[in-house]
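Quick illustration, no need to memorize.
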Amino acid sequence: MTAITTIRIDHAALPNQFDRSRPNAVAEAIVAALRDEGIKAEASDIFSHIKIELPTTQLAAASAVLADLQLI
């Protein structure tokens, strides 16, 4: 069994490059950026935040991608 890490990003914390009125599109863009780097992730719009789930073994690589996107 693989350990899973969940990252939550508050809608209000999204940088201006993301359209806050389209949170599903934001989630899709995040997944696409992670997958481009070989990171298997799922993201979804939850009431007040974007939820990203990924294998814990890929957390460091995912953090680099999310930092490049100015999400963390």
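The mean pLDDT is 94.
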